[in-house]
Design brief:
- The complex is a heterodimer of chains A (248) and B (94).
- Helices cover 65% and strands 0% of the residues of chain A.
- Chain A is an all-alpha fold and 248 residues long.
- In chain A, α1 (3-23) runs antiparallel to α2 (32-60), α5 (90-111) packs across α7 (149-162) and α5 packs antiparallel against α9.
- Chain A starts with a helix and ends in a 6-residue tail after the last helix.
- In chain A, 41% of the residues are buried.
- Chain B has one domain (6-80): Ubiquitin-like (UB roll) (Roll), CATH 3.10.20.520.
- Chain B has a 3-stranded antiparallel beta sheet with strand order 2-1-3, with helices on one face.
- In chain B, a hairpin with a 7-residue loop joins β1 (6-13) and β2 (21-28).
- The chains are: A mainly alpha (248), B alpha+beta (94).
- The A-B interface holds A 30-34, 36-37, 40, 132, 135-136, 139, 143 and B 1, 5, 26-29, 32-33, 36-37, 39-41, 44.
Chain lengths: 248, 94
């Protein structure tokens, strides 16, 4: 696999998998309004994943975006393990999405300056969506954190539970380094400081305590995952795998 | 969210300069959430360029019993319609 193809695939996979997780809320949202809000965010992410998968497939030359989404096993997926974590209760989902949105904002801001025109164009389009997603999730974090004693306690637990998965946002390996040197990719390590202050600001307002960076989970760049990804894929891929020639 | 969530009326302006039109309503606990819910429910298909949300309780409505005294007196006053003079050809949006 070419470096650029892999680099794009990693971004696409995180987008696709967290989109799928959000789509699981459809018809189960706490209110009709929030149900639609979550589905809207999920669809934005799916659109972005599709654009990225198409680009990755184009570089590959022998695959389509559908092949990449539906004909790979979990060990061939490179999404952040944060994205595959279960929806849990509404606060769990909001915290997961909030942390990812903060990362996405900073990441795509940098990627929009890429020398690669397609990546830059996808980023510019995505940023408008991400700003709205973050507005929605950061408001919920504050409402739940600075809400009642119970809501504060519950979302603090959500935060503590998922924190160990945030370390993967800021990892870089040899593939990344080459893409960064070519001024196409983003140096994720450099995003950590801004991400911390973005997250800190909201957590303080929400009266939540930021957990420490310890025992952080790693491995997704090598296709290592929590068992949860397998469950997602078996649902997401079952139709195209059972009926390979099925068409819309 | 509890069952007592406030109801807000949603008004969407489809284009700059046009009046905001009533689109429907949403449940929300506060202004910001009402605005976001309205955005998510009523502007998904490019319907809007601006949104107003107003707490339903702040809207004062006439009641059906008022209809006769409110609206019937206008029935026989055709002179209130601007139909007794010619419109210049160039005039638009009237």
């Amino acid at each position: 696999m070419q470096d650029l193809e892999k680099y794009i695939l990693r971004i696409a996979d995180s987008t696709l998998i967290i989109s799928h997780r959000l789509s699981e809320w459809c018809s189960k949202g706490p209110t009709l309004e929030e149900d639609i809000a979550l589905a809207n965010i999920s669809l934005d992410l799916l659109g972005r994943a599709n654009a990225l998968l198409e680009y990755s497939a184009k570089i590959n030359g022998n695959k389509t975006a559908n092949d990449l989404a539906f004909r790979r096993d979990d060990r061939e997926f490179y999404n952040f393990q944060l994205c595959e974590q279960e929806n849990g209760h509404f606060g769990d989902t909001i915290i997961r999405q909030f942390l990812y949105d903060c990362f996405s904002l900073l990441f795509f801001q940098e990627l929009s300056k890429s020398k690669d025109e397609t990546l830059s164009a996808i980023s510019i389009k995505s940023l408008k969506e991400i700003k709205y997603h973050l507005r929605h999730t950061h408001n919920w974090v504050i409402r739940l954190g600075d809400g009642t004693e119970t809501s504060n306690q519950k979302i603090q637990e959500s935060l503590n539970k998922i924190w160990k998965f945030t370390g993967e946002f800021f990892e870089t390996d040899d593939v990344d380094k080459k893409i960064i040197e070519n001024k196409i990719g983003v140096d994720n390590k450099k995003l950590k400081k801004d991400w911390d202050s973005l997250v800190d600001k909201v957590l303080t307002e929400a009266k939540l305590k930021k957990p420490e960076d310890k025992d952080m989970i790693t491995g997704s760049k090598e296709g290592i995952h929590t068992g949860l990804l397998e469950n997602i894929l078996s649902e997401m891929q079952c139709l195209p795998r059972a009926y390979p020639d099925a068409k819309w | 969210m509890n069952k007592q969530a406030t109801i807000w009326e949603v008004f969407i302006q489809s284009k700059n300069g046009l009046a905001h039109k009533h689109a429907g309503n949403v449940h929300a606990e506060d202004k910001e959430m009402a605005l976001q819910n309205a955005r998510d429910l009523y502007t998904r298909r490019n319907e809007g360029s601006c949104i107003w949300v107003v707490k339903s309780e702040h809207i004062v409505s006439s009641v059906p019993e008022d209809a006769e005294s409110f609206f019937d007196p206008a029935n026989d006053k055709v002179y209130r319609h601007p139909t007794f003079y010619k419109m210049p050809d160039g005039a638009k949006h009237i």
